[in-house]
């Protein structure tokens, strides 16, 4: 997204001259977003070292995504009562504790359980980080958002790479690394982030995210996202197994995936939505993703082609994540925090279903079957959007403000 123009030099200067508390939150954001792809390179190692089946290893994604999604239903209720700083610190503390416990675990069942706790911490942190940076940054909202998006993109891209490097030593390495880095972030935020001021908090009712899904437009987008996330997480979580690479090879592959996703979510998606209606962008991008997934199915025995499919998938996923979440923010008159909580819960449940479904399909039918099922799910998501175009007419409104774009990028990629 762009904040530039003739004042680009002054904005760059403002961006680099931030209070220490902003850099503390930004650092924690990098590490939090690393968690998205951190375990990808070590899935085969976990299966081998802990005597687990591929399906059991995939449950590391399922527990993380399921709890993240369910937690999204209550994060706005929590933060509206205890404040942003406490919410950030609780989220970071949970990630530190559960990442460390996962690293020390002796069986896959414990790792699965501790990943669930990690997901809870991540949901609390991510849901609050953007507002914290915007509130504390110097140089205005645009500089704060650029910094936040830079942290997001860096975390998404580095996560798989760091996971591969540490995972080449031991599958426990990425968990220990996350615990240490998040502990540093916790101390930095605890000591550097000042109080939140005296402005009264607007308390969000506990039931708000649950009743929000009664809105037809929001329900349609959530349903489409559920199906789309089946494709997303089959590509992300299942591909390390047919690739057949070591941890570093998988890490490098998904570094390319994360880099592509970050670039298109931050820059390409806003560019497209300034020129085309959001529903048109979604209706074009979903079939492209389905074609990519089908190509992965046909190319499963050729690692180089499968790498290409992963990277192309990342490019398309970045656009879809951001545009779908932007659409959610415009689909109703509900507060954006409430709408995004409802939507995120449903889409993460779709992501939670996908990884073990993929390995079961591969074992019972053929290794390529998960990709073809993923392609069908993504096409079904496109059909939902097309059939609901009447209810979704309002999402094709005006251009989003930079802050709303950043919220869409963050919630889409979390």
Automatic annotation (TrEMBL):
Sequence intervals crossing the membrane: 21-39, 59-80, 87-106, 118-138, 145-169, 175-195, 216-241, 247-269, 281-300, 306-324, 345-365, 371-392
Annotated protein name in UniProt: MFS transporter
Membrane topology value: Multi-pass membrane protein
GO terms under cellular component: plasma membrane
Alphabetized Gene3D superfamilies for the sequence: MFS general substrate transporter like domains
UniProt keywords, alphabetically: Membrane, Transmembrane, Transmembrane helix
GO molecular function: transmembrane transporter activity
The Major facilitator superfamily (MFS) profile domain, residue ranges: 21-392
InterPro entries noted in UniProt: MFS (IPR011701), MFS_dom (IPR020846), MFS_trans_sf (IPR036259), Tet-R_TetA/multi-R_MdtG-like (IPR001958), YfmO-like (IPR053200)
Record's subcellular location: Cell membrane
Annotated Pfam families: MFS_1
């Amino acid at each position: 997204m762009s904040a530039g123009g003739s004042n680009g030099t002054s904005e760059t200067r403002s961006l680099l001259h931030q209070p220490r508390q902003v850099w503390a939150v930004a650092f924690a954001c990098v590490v939090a977003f690393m968690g998205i792809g951190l375990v990808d390179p070590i899935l085969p190692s976990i299966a081998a070292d802990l005597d687990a089946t591929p399906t059991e290893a995939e449950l590391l994604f399922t527990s993380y995504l399921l709890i993240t999604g369910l937690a999204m239903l209550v994060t706005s209720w929590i933060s509206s009562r205890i404040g942003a700083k406490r919410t950030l610190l609780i989220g970071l503390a949970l990630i530190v504790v559960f990442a460390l416990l996962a690293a020390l675990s002796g069986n896959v069942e414990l790792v699965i359980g501790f990943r669930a706790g990690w997901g809870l911490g991540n949901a609390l942190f991510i849901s609050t980080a953007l507002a914290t940076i915007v509130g504390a940054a110097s140089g205005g909202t645009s500089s704060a958002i650029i910094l936040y998006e830079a942290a997001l993109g860096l975390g998404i891209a580095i996560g798989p790479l760091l996971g591969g490097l540490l995972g080449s030593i031991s599958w426990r390495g990425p968990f220990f690394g996350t615990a240490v880095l998040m502990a540093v972030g916790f101390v930095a935020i605890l000591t550097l982030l000042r109080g939140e001021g005296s402005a009264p908090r607007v308390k969000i009712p506990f039931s708000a995210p649950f009743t929000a899904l009664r809105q037809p437009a929001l329900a349609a987008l959530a349903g489409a996202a559920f199906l789309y996330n089946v494709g997303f997480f089959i590509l992300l979580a299942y591909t390390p197994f047919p690739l057949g690479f070591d941890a570093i090879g998988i890490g490098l592959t998904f570094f390319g995936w994360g880099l592509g996703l970050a670039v298109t979510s931050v820059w390409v998606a806003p560019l497209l939505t300034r020129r085309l209606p959001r529903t048109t962008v979604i209706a074009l991008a979903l079939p492209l993703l389905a074609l990519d997934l089908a190509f992965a199915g046909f190319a499963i025995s050729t690692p180089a082609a499968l790498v290409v499919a992963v990277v192309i998938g990342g490019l398309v996923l970045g656009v879809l994540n951001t545009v779908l979440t932007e659409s959610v923010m415009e689909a109703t008159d509900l507060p954006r925090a409430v709408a995004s909580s409802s939507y995120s819960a449903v889409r993460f449940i779709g992501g939670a279903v996908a990884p073990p479904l993929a390995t079961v399909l591969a074992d019972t039918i053929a290794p390529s079957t998960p990709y073809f099922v993923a392609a069908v799910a993504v096409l079904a998501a496109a059909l939902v959007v097309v059939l609901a175009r009447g209810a979704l007419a309002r999402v094709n409104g005006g251009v989003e403000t930079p802050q709303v774009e950043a919220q869409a990028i963050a919630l889409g990629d979390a």
